[in-house]
Design a protein that fits this description.
By secondary structure, the chain is of the alpha+beta class. The protein contains ten helices and eleven strands. The protein is about 35% helix and about 20% strand. The strands form three sheets. Strands 4-5-6-7-8-9 form a six-stranded mixed beta sheet, sandwiched between helices. The protein has a three-stranded antiparallel beta sheet with strand order 1-3-2, sandwiched between helices. It is globular and about 55 Å long. The N and C termini lie far apart (about 45 Å).
C-alpha cells in the first residue's frame, strides 16, 4: 500500500518557513514535530537544504544558532499548495535580509509558537499555519497596513470538533526600535483600515453608477480582528511608557470610536512567555490598569470618551 502521507513532515516544515519567514531549529521543531527527537528535525532540514528548498544563516552571537528560511525555489514550490494558495504572494529572502531582520523576525516566530503551544495545552485549535506573518492590507494609494502577524484561534475542544468561537487578531511585536509615539500611531493606521472603503471599479464603455460598497476588511473577516501589541526590548519603565502612549492613542476622539468596537490589548513579551498567551497578562488600551486574557469578552470599566458609552463590550 502506498504511504500517502510520505513527505508530510517535510511539507509542513517548508510551509512554516515560507509563512513565518524564519525560524530557529528549536522553534521549527516545537512547531512541527514536538513529539519526536530534535535530531529528526535536524535531518529533515538538512534534506530540504540539499534539495535547495531551504537555507540557513548562523548567528555567532547567539551560540551559533541556526536560523532557517525558505529559498526562492522553496517559496515557489510551497506557494502552489492549497494551504498557502490564498495568502499574499511571498517573496524569498536571502542571507543578508534574514541576518538583518533576525532579531524581530525570530521574536515574531517565538510569539506564534507561544500561541500554538498554549492552544495544545488547552485542547483548543491553533495549528502552526494559523499564524501568518506580514499580512498586507492596502489603504488606497501607496498606503497600507502590514501587521507583523495575523492569528487564527478556535476555542473549544479540538479533539472532538466542538464548535467554539473563532478568534482573529492582528499582532504587532515591538522591540523598542521606534519611539512610543510612532508605535501608538499604528492604532490610527488600523482605525483607517477599519473604515477604508475602496473606490468602486469603473468599467470601460459603461456609464458610472453609484455602487453600494463596504469596508475592504469585510472581504476577509466576518469581524475586524482584535489588535494585540506585544512589547519587548526595554525594562518595566519603558514598557509602562509605551502602554501609556497606546492608551493616549486609543482615547483620541479622532479615531471615531474604533477602540470601542475593536479590542486593543498590550502585553509584555516576558509575561506572555512565562504565563502563556491565554493568561491575564494583557492590558486593555482603554483600561491599562486592568489585566485580562486576550480572549476576554466581558465589559471593561474605563473612562468614557466625551460622547461614548461608560463601558466597552469586547466582541467574541
Amino acid at each position: 500500500m502506498v504511504n500517502v502521507d510520505a513527505g508530510g513532515g517535510d511539507r509542513l516544515a517548508l510551509a512554516v518557513l515560507v509563512q513565518y519567514r524564519m525560524a530557529t531549529t528549536q522553534q521549527l521543531h516545537l512547531l512541527t514535530a514536538p513529539g519526536v527527537r530534535i535530531e529528526q528535525t535536524r535531518r529533515r532540514l538538512g534534506e530540504l537544504r540539499s534539495e535547495g528548498l531551504v537555507d540557513h544563516i548562523t548567528l555567532a552571537q547567539a551560540g551559533r544558532t541556526r536560523v532557517w528560511f525558505a529559498t526562492g525555489y522553496g517559496v515557489r514550490i510551497a506557494s502552489a499548495w492549497p494551504e498557502l494558495r490564498d495568502q499574499p504572494r511571498r517573496h524569498a529572502a536571502d542571507r543578508t535580509a534574514v541576518r538583518l531582520k533576525a532579531g524581530h523576525g525570530l521574536t515574531v516566530t517565538e510569539v506564534g509558537l507561544a500561541f500554538v503551544q498554549d492552544a495544545r495545552h488547552r485542547g483548543e485549535t491553533c495549528r502552526p499555519l494559523d499564524w501568518i506573518a506580514e499580512v498586507h492590507h492596502p489603504l488606497g494609494g501607496s498606503e497600507a497596513v502590514i501587521a507583523d502577524a495575523l492569528l487564527y484561534y478556535r476555542r473549544g475542544d479540538a479533539d472532538h470538533g466542538s464548535g467554539g468561537a473563532m478568534l482573529r487578531a492582528f499582532v504587532e511585536v515591538d522591540r523598542a526600535t521606534m519611539g512610543p509615539e510612532r508605535l501608538a500611531a499604528k492604532i490610527g493606521a488600523y482605525a483607517r483600515l477599519h473604515r477604508y472603503v475602496p473606490a468602486p471599479a469603473r468599467r470601460r464603455r459603461q456609464p458610472f453608477t453609484q455602487q453600494a460598497t463596504e469596508e475592504a476588511w469585510k472581504q476577509h473577516y466576518p469581524l475586524f480582528p482584535r489588535l494585540l501589541f506585544i512589547l519587548d526590548g526595554t525594562g518595566p519603565a519603558g514598557i509602562e511608557h509605551r502602554v501609556r502612549a497606546l492608551h493616549a492613542a486609543a482615547t483620541d476622539t479622532a479615531l471615531y470610536g474604533f477602540p470601542h468596537e475593536v479590542p486593543i490589548l498590550t502585553a509584555a513579551l516576558a509575561d506572555l512567555l512565562r504565563e502563556g498567551p491565554s493568561a491575564p497578562v494583557w492590558r486593555p488600551a482603554l483600561a491599562p490598569d486592568q489585566r485580562v486574557s486576550w480572549m476576554h469578552t466581558g465589559r471593561l470599566h474605563c473612562p468614557s470618551p466625551p460622547t461614548g458609552p461608560p463601558t466597552v463590550r469586547i466582541p467574541g
